[in-house]
Each structure stands twice: as structure tokens, then as C-alpha cells.
Amino acid sequence: MTTLIDPRAVVSPKAQLGAGVSVGPFTIVEDGATVGDGTVIHANALIGSGARIGPNCQIHHGAVVGHVPQDLKYRGEPTTCELGAKTIVREYATLHRGTGDDGRTLIGTECMIMGYCHIAHDCRLGDHVIMANAAMLAGHVEVQDYAIIGGITPVHQFVRIGAHSMIGGGLRIPKDVPPFVLVGGTPAVFEGLNQLGLRRRGYTRATLDALHETYQHLYRSGLNVSQALSRLRENAGLMEVAEVRAVVDFVAGSSRGIIGAPRLAR
Predict the structure, then answer these.
(1) pLDDT tens digits for range 146-201
(2) CATH no. for residue 229?
């Protein structure tokens, strides 16, 4: 496969481009950036020195990948922003590299990062994550596999977004979102299981029922979170389900606390 670089692009000789890479006009690829085989970089993009882009990705017009973090602690140390294979970054999204000791921002495989999204320093995204237009992640956010974040939604630093969850658009997310749930309302609250998404991904009725019972304990029982976790751990049948154990472990490991339940009408 031939690498195609538009003559109007500026590509550092110290960058590493794989076979079949395409670089559009007016794009800048800085020293030290690496781009995997078959990746297409459209016009006017900035591929910073910290970019580590996997194979067969799409980087669209005006996107910024691997630029310096917006973090006052950053002192110019070498850090990275790493994208897995087949990830799509749409127009004017900004994906910054890490800072501090670890120094890595990680985005998994087959993610879709839509226009004007922001992924700040040291975030961790799993595989198949979707961020709709203008969703924004502050530093150190973790987003697990198959999570979907609606448009114009800011996520507070150090928040965790659980696997297979779906967050509505225009919300503010200051606390952890457990796996497998829908989030909506103002303020953002638990609205039930992401049943449609889970069915599409092959989860069985028995697993959905077990998850429903799990979240009844967490959100509808009148127990506080610690009490609900104790009740769940005592339920041997529920704890046999891997997805239930994942929920229990996620909630137990939350340092910010989890989103609340909707208030009942009086």
C-alpha cells in the first residue's frame, strides 16, 4: 500500500507513518507522532508529537490528536495520546495527551468520537465507545466498553462511566455512572437499564432480570449504598451472574459516589 501525503501537508521526517496512510492538505504531523497502516487523516488536522494512532483510523477535518494537555501541572514531559484500531475522530474534536507519572491518554478500538468532542489528559476509554457531538471529558475520566455519552454532556474529572451505559444529551455528570444503565434528567439520575442496547448485544432475559433486581436493591429499596451492596453480596443466586458481580465491584470501588435515583413525585 502506498502512503499518500498531500504536498500542502507538513509531515515531520521524524514522524512514523505506516503503509497506506493518507494525509490531507494543510494537516500537520509533528515529530515523534506515529500513525498506523491504512489510517486516513483529512485536511487541516493536527497530529501532535504525542499521538500514537492505530491502524485503519479516520481523523477528520480540523481534529487535534496528541496535543499538549490543558493542565497546569504539565511541564513538557513526553506523554502520549493513543488510539486503537478503526477509531473515528470527527471534525474539530480535541484529544490531548497525558500528564504526570503515567502520562497516557488511551482511546480503545472502534470508538466514534463525534464533532467538537473533547477528551482531556489521562482519560481512559474502552472499546466501542461513542461520544456524541460536543461531549466533553475532563481529566482522568474512565469510560468503559460500549458506553454512549450524549451530545453537549460534560463529565467531571475522575468520574467513571460503566460499560454498556447510555447517557442522555445535555446532562452534567459529576458522579460515577454504573454499568448497564440509562441516565437522564436534571440533575442526571438513574432511569433504568439500557435494555435495548443490552438486547442488541446479546444479553439474555435471565441476565437482564438479574440486573434489574440488582438495581432495585441499589435504587429502589430505601437502603443506602453500603447496605444495598451487603444485601446483594448475601444473595448467592444474584452473585453467580458475572454482570451482577461487575456492578457490585464497580459501585464498591467508587470514590466519587454513583448517580442518584429520580425523586418520586409527591
Answers:
(1) 999 999 999 999 999 999 999 999 999 999 999 999 999 999 999 999 999 999 99
(2) 1.20.1180
Question: Is the peptide bond between 13 and the residue preceding it cis, with omega within 30 degrees of 0?
Answer: no
Cα separation of 196 and 131, whole Å? 18
CATH number, domain with residue 110 = 2.160.10.10
Query: Domain boundary at 124, 140, 156, which?
Result: 140
DSSP 48-72: -TTEEE-TT-EE-TT-EEEEPPS-T
Based on the structure, what is the number of domains in the chain? 2
> pLDDT for 203-262, tens place per residue?
999 999 999 999 999 999 999 999 999 999 999 999 999 999 999 999 999 999 999 998
pTM of the model: 0.96
Residues designated catalytic:
121-122, 139
- State the Cα angle at 214 between 213 and 215, rounded to 5°: 95
Sign for the pseudo-dihedral over CA of 48, 54, 55, 61: negative
